[in-house]
Amino acid sequence: MVRWNGAWIMAILATVSCGDRASPGRSEAVPAVGDTVAMVDLKVGFVYVGPIGDAGWTFAHDQGRRALETRYRGLKTVYVENVKEGADAERVLTRLAQEGCALVFATSFGYMDAVLATAAKYPRVAFMHATGFKRDANVGTYFGRAYQTIYLAGLAGGALTTSGKIGFVAPVPIPEIIRHINAFTLGAREANPSCTVHVVWTNAWYDPAAEKDAALSLMDTGCDVIMTEGDSPAPLQAAEERGAFAIGYNSDARAFAPTRFITAAVWDWSVLYSRIVDEVLAGIWKAEDYWWGIETGITKLAPWGPAVPETVRQRVGTRQREITDGSFDVFHGPIIRQDGTEAYPAGARATDEELLSMSYFVQGVAGTIPK
Amino acid sequence: MSAAAVILRRACRDLAVIAGAVGTVLLACHVVLGAAGIHGAGACAALFRESLGTRYGFSESVVKATPLMLAGLAVAVAFRMRLWNIGGEGQLYAGALAAAWVALFLPRCGIPRVMLMLPAACAAGAAWALAPGILKASLGVSEILVTLMGNYLAMLLADHLCYGPWKGSTTFGFPMSDRFPADADLPTYAGTRVHGGLAIALIGAVLLWALLWRTRWGFQVRVAGSNARAAEYAGYRIRRDVVVVMLISGALAGLAGGVEMAGVLHRLQPRFSPGYGYTAILVAWLARLHPLAIPPVALFLGMLLTGGEQLQVSAGVPSSLVDILQGLILFLALAAEAFLRRRHGEARHPELSGSPAVEGSGD
Amino acid sequence: MTDAMGVCAALIAAGIQAGTALLLAALGELVLERAGVLNLGIEGIMLVGALAAFAASHAGVNPGLAVACAGGAGLCMGLLHGSVTVLLGANQVVAGLALLMLGTGISGFFGQRLIGQTAPGLDSLPVPLLADIPLAGRAFFRHDPLTYAGVLLVPSIAFILMRTTWGLALRAVGENPEAADAHGISVVKVRMLASAFAGILAGIGGAHLSLAYNQMWIERMVAGRGWIALAVVIFSCWRPYRALFGAYLFGLVGAATFRFQALGSPVSAPLLQTLPYLTTIAVLVLVAWRSRRHTMDAPAALTVPFRREERR
Prior knowledge:
Order of helices and strands of chain B: HHHHHHHHHHHHH
Strand content of chain C: under 5%
Largest interface: B-C, 55 and 58 residues
CATH class of chain C: Mainly Alpha
Oligomer: heterotrimer
Structural class of chain C: mainly alpha
Helix content of chain B: over 70%
Helix content of chain C: 55-70%
Radius of gyration of chain C: 20 Å
Strand content of chain B: under 5%
Strand order of the largest sheet of chain C: 1-2
Number of helices of chain C: 13
Largest sheet of chain C: 2 strands, antiparallel
Radius of gyration of chain B: 22 Å
Structural class of chain B: mainly alpha
Number of helices of chain B: 13
Number of domains of chain C: 1
CATH topology of chain C: ABC transporter involved in vitamin B12 uptake, BtuC
Shape of chain C: globular
CATH architecture of chain C: Orthogonal Bundle
Distance between the termini of chain C: 77 Å
């Protein structure tokens, strides 16, 4: 427990001092993806919770994996799809280590216990656990600050709603999604202080039919902008059908809403994966928390859709620069919770630890988190 | 024909069945993988090399097979009476929930918690199967439908508890319970993940066999399964037996969830089961609903499933191709078996097939 | 008031949309079970159908013909199940589960290149005049062609099953294959045809998901609806009209749970989602209670393989 607290303090210090590995882009250059580097001898394993064909989360990670194969000659990757977050995970991780992987990425939070147990058995293998919070001598954690991008998308969404009601199709109530809903709402209400964000949980990571129906039900109750965090582009298609604006997630699926697309908060895992491979190759990898922000390119806004006016583009662009250079923080006080109590007074900022375990909605969200 | 000749003939038949199935399986692997540009024979060897050839691989097949054995026994006892309990998955979740509740919330009381978790899991699984049993016995409501719906209900209940009231205090808001205390763990075997659940499953198989084949009540159940009308004429209390069999079946499936909690996972997570309850239907049918055949068949399926993972790791086969392969293996094994059985002209087991409507609800 | 009515109309429309794939798949399975064969692999057939329809449309085939492609793919899957269970007499439960694995794998493997692609789908086809009726028009007469087809299939199947000699033969095969055989009906032929029919309809049900309800392909996008279709068949007590009721009821309650959330219900999402399952059980129990019928009229020879006795 002592070590974790230490790690947290490090992480917090890192954010405050705007340096360090937790957010490298602010002081150091991130290696450009696309340059091929010299021949390497490394095997990298990936464990996916869904099928690559989910068109969302797993698909985005697999794009990152493919980028590694193109960038490094000689690098081999191994992946296992559809690994349930139960008894199977530890076996798959062990097999990857046995197969000679020197670096293993576990891409879902439910693999936590399995990663820690396997890492203890294979101290020479570097394990990286996505979205997790527990580290060990050879277990690091990683994620991206997608909330920054989603806040910017909210800024655009708030500017474009005329009914003042924005719909948010959300998969399951975990801190990551709650943080994203809050960031989106902060953005939307900055652009339009009277608007509200209405949340419908689908309780599934991917079920295109349910996601579409969730979007339809939000539009039926008056929402004219739809944001989705589900894997599929189904809500975008539904919005296009009904003439509502649409914001996507994971990947740029504008083809599904050609006229009503605003933007999307997309992942580019290849930047982080390349960096970690570089560190492992150089022998300088350490089991730390990598929580990269928008300045690194791991999370970014997709190019604007045709219906977004120039003023909105400029406003979001300005804010994006402020986030990138560190002069603006999405979760800064005053922030009021949904129930009216104050989460942060003016001038205060949320710490990374608080962000990672966020379990309340901010003012302006209409929806419930299971208690 | 003498008894020895019958046994010999059966042995020959079984050997022929196995050889035929293995041959077709190898051919199928080679063709499917070859079509995808992967060396078929090598990949196929990988499928079984790991799960059979190494200590670790074999131990993991056993880990995978343990819940399949218990859930398979649950399916078998119900299907013996032609009660189509396809709610093993839900009863398994119910058992896991009860086990988790005992581990998380019951105050320390002298005896290790695991001793209470497993009975609680049995009771919860039985309770989850009780409603379909009573509805079947009293109103003739299809148990297929009620048990299937029960799967979704139990899974959603587990979701609700993990996302809400049972969410751990040390999990940073993630949907999982806290880790169970140490006295909620089943013992494991010498550095592997094989746990005490295996012994429980094997004892369960023997007890169930004894119950069905060595007691008067078991005889009644089997008669009711093969000929409901005859059982009625004989004056058996079929309605009561329907409820009792459902209770036993649910208890076994609940126990599968309990040992998975206490033996492997040690904390509750949503959707932790990779479909054990459904795979168990396969186990039970392939074992021809015979309790003693269920452990080896569960082990075989455990190997097939863990071998599928190994195929992804060592041969780079995508999981969709593994699904195709596993489907084909089952199909071909089934076809080969049916074909050979036909040639031998053996009469089918009446209790192995039949109508899902138990007519003996008493009217 | 009109606003509330509007929400209701939209809810009914959403329920019908969500129920259509279930209805199509359930109707096919109903006919097959009436002939005495159980196919647990409906989910796998729907997946293959969904992929076939989307792939065909993506390749430039007219969406109507793409639906036919889905039917064709479903036909192949249905015949595969039929040939193992009917011709060889293998166990229907195992064969169905094997078909599920096979369908999941085939659709996942061949669908990889279609992720994130778009293709022309089946757009809604308002019924002239009727679609302009306030509220009812929106609820009932602004759907895609497959939805209307599903509704029209119900009386057709009911008529064929109950009023024609074909239907009589099919039911006889499912109730008492030995007697049917004695009357000169080819049990194998009837069951193979029923397998083919069930495959076609399940394939088209899948096409509804990938071309009409959603217009995209995503791996495993059927997401358990094949199992619900099986539940609908049992719920219907093997009667087409009640299958229509069951499928739409399930779709409607499912659609309502999202609307409760959108309107601000404080109940947690997983608990709300238990509603369709609880409703299904409740209705079935109520029906059984009221009619005091102790048997649910499952075809007597369901899952029993038929083997013609050798005559010497």
